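User: For my dataset I need records formatted as: sequence, then structure tokens, nothing else. Please produce one.
Assistant:
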Amino acid sequence: MLKKNIVAFGAALAVAGMLAGAPSVEAAERTLRLGHGQNPSDPVHTAAKKFAEAVAKETGDKVEVKIFGSSSLGDYTQMQEGLQQGTIDIVIESIGTLSRFSPVAGIESMPYLFRDHEHYVKIWNGPVGAEIKKKLAEEANFLVLGHMFRGARQLTANKEVRSIADLNGLKIRVSPMKERLVTWQTFGATPTPMSWSEVFTGLQQGVIDAQENPLATILSASLNEVQKYLILTSHMANGFTFQFNAKRFAALPADQQAALRKAADEAAAWYNSYIAEEEAGMLKTLQEKGMTVVKIDRAPFEAKSKEIAKQFPEVESWYLKISEAK
């Protein structure tokens, strides 16, 4: 028995020796940390994976993207600060969340500005969008790529809302952005800034009465479990982008910059197609899960939106450019 064990041990050592001498898989030359706030079932996470796969393919595995979802690197404010400091390389978030760094970014949060998916993508991939993004890069050091249209933002609540008057006193969670706070104050609600990771519990415990998000987020976060009504306000259209530190991006080799740009566009194309195809099904699924869908007259909300834009003179000229664009 002892002899057999010695032989087996010797064979194991031989195999280990062969493995040690075997060529290893070449490690990536560069590893990039990507953070986002959505859970693994959200299409944003799938877009992040497609982005990572495309980057590996385009660079011949020289660049690896490691994904950290579900706010595991912090909320969006913390992640964007990490982006500025160099502790994070990529953040998936909306342009509007950058307004605390550059006021012009607040244009994305203006209500009833973008008419639909086509208008949104056309603006951000066109000359007006290019001007805004140039200012963001030059003034705030943020480079944004790959525009992913999230769909119109809708209101969910635990009380029925059929008119703008019904918003009076409604405690609604909003992202901690001035534009969102002013919007809902102007509509008559009581906006409450809160981190996204705290929203489900906040609704469950009655700390807040309502929240607003696109259908994909409402569904992936299972908000139907803590919200009764889905009110089709379609009050805002925004999207996700791949955000980089502009100076650090510019310091990358040209071929890697090109690969990241191409990968962002590919991931965005997938996301946009998915949302366009699935949105009607998402609405039906939320109804099947018990939510009562409420259709409202949006005209009073739209009328108020012009008042809101006037409270932000730094974006008012952009508001006119975008709203008048064909």
